[in-house]
Amino acid sequence: MNLKSIAIIIIATFSFASLGSAMLSAQKQDDTQLLQVREAVWRAWFANDTKTLQALVPTETIVISGGEEKWKHQAEVFQSAADFQSAGGKLIRLEFTHTEVQHFGDVAIAWSNYLVETETNGKRSVSSGRASEVFVRRNGQWINPGWHTDSTRQQ
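User: That's the sequence. What structure does it adopt?
Assistant: Structure tokens below.
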């Protein structure tokens, strides 16, 4: 084999490998389980459901929320859920008005617009915003080790 033949084989191999990975990433994923976990995390936070939060929000969690200077970790996430409930807060409505999911092996990022209506001491409020949420598949189960939210509207 001459140098030209070897170069053609190498180029063809890389081309087919690139095409194969592009085809795999372009395949539509079934996001049903991931989106169920996403909704379960949000609902568990509003309900202060620590059992569900412990199962789906791991110790290495990092959370960034718009308007808050300090980042949160798992303990602060759990504490903020407890604070919401102890203040009499309850979830009235939760909607994800638009979501797109990107997959990178056992990691997925969900990009969403959300709307939340809550009630605290008889007073209702509605807020909406955007969320970027990281999900990792561990032992066949999606978990949610990080997210960033910002609020675009409050009523």
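Strands lie at 62-65, 72-73, 89-104, 107-120, 123-138, 141-154.
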